[in-house]
């Protein structure tokens, strides 16, 4: 069991939890995720590791309330315990000095993007972060992102903060003014689909971190399967990051409706 040692409410529906997990904190890399279970009969749910502190032996999870299982996790308080926490899982992000990297994060996707932004900056890249949310209240981790970004562009649907518009408009503005060597996108599947369509038009290599339905997280159940370049891949062991221009987002969006 893993103890909650800190909790912060980013908004009514988004919660930050700092959890004791010393072994995971030591071995985790940008892009890794964990699977969480609350209660002996709880559902296993994947969450990307937003941060880790090897000295304190903790990892940070940023979770959005969307259903019964996420509500269970978000309702935990400091001193409570997560029943099971398994990880780190998945393949770490490939980090090198690409040149100029645009990191496009939407909603709670900014949380898993944060360690990638940090790693890309430390590798010597020029990092431009484009953050998007529906309203000002839903923009998260802007200060932390700014620490490792050469520039931060914030887009809100209603124009209540930053610039009014969609994340694709912010990304396109950067591509049109300078050479972009890589784009990384994390957020709702529909958002990643349109970012991928945009960057494909401009021939900018793009990685998308996919957020499919997942059960065991070890490649056995097949619930997280996606089609990438015409081949079946498992997000849990082959990903979660894939060439966004090769992902069949329409199929993925259809499969995400399984529990609707």
Describe what this molecule looks like in 3D:
A seven-stranded antiparallel β-sheet has the order 6-1-2-5-4-3-7. Strands 11-10-9-8-12-13-16 form a seven-stranded mixed β-sheet, with helices on both faces. The chain has a two-stranded antiparallel sheet with strand order 14-15. The protein folds into two domains: 88 residues, Translation factors (Elongation Factor Tu (Ef-tu), domain 3, Beta Barrel), CATH 2.40.30; 160 residues, 3-Layer(aba) Sandwich (Rossmann fold). It has eight helices and 16 strands. Helix content is 26%, strand content 33%. The mean pLDDT is 90. Helix 5 runs parallel beside helix 6 and helix 6 packs antiparallel against helix 8. The chain is α/β, with parallel strands linked by helices. It starts with a strand and ends in a 5-residue tail after the last helix. It is globular.
For this entry, give a set of tags.
2 domains; seven-stranded antiparallel β-sheet; alpha/beta; Elongation Factor Tu (Ef-tu), domain 3; 260 residues; Rossmann fold; 16 strands
Helical fraction = 25-40%
Number of helices: 8
Q: Roughly how many Å apart are the termini?
A: 31 Å
Predict the CATH topology of the largest domain.
Rossmann fold
Q: What is the SS-derived class?
A: alpha/beta
Name of the CATH class of the largest domain: Alpha Beta
Order of helical and strand elements: EEHEEEHEEEHEHEEHEHEEEHEH
């Amino acid at each position: 069991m893993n103890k909650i040692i800190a909790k912060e409410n980013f908004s009514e529906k988004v919660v930050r939890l700092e959890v004791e997990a010393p072994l995971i904190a030591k071995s985790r890399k940008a892009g890794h995720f964990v699977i969480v279970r609350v209660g002996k009969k709880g559902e296993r749910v994947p969450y990307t590791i937003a941060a880790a502190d090897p000295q304190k032996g903790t990892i940070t999870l940023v979770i959005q309330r969307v259903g019964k299982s996420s509500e269970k996790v978000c309702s935990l308080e400091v001193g409570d315990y997560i029943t099971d926490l398994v990880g780190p899982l998945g393949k770490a992000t490939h980090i090198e000095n690409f040149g100029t990297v645009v990191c496009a994060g939407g909603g709670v996707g900014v949380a898993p993007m944060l360690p990638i932004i940090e790693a890309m900056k430390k590798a010597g890249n020029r990092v431009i972060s484009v953050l998007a949310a529906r309203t000002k209240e839903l923009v998260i981790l802007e200060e932390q992102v700014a620490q490792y970004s050469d520039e931060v562009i914030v887009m809100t649907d209603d124009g209540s903060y930053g610039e009014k518009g969609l994340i694709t408009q912010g990304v396109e503005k950067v591509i049109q003014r300078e050479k972009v060597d890589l784009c990384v996108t994390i957020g709702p599947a529909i958002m990643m689909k349109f970012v991928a369509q945009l960057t494909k038009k401009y021939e900018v290599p793009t990685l998308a971190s996919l957020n499919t339905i997942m059960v065991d997280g070890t490649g056995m159940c097949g619930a997280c399967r996606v089609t990438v370049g015409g081949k079946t891949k498992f997000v849990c062991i082959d990903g979660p990051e894939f060439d966004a221009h090769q992902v069949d987002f329409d199929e993925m969006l259809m499969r995400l409706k399984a529990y609707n």
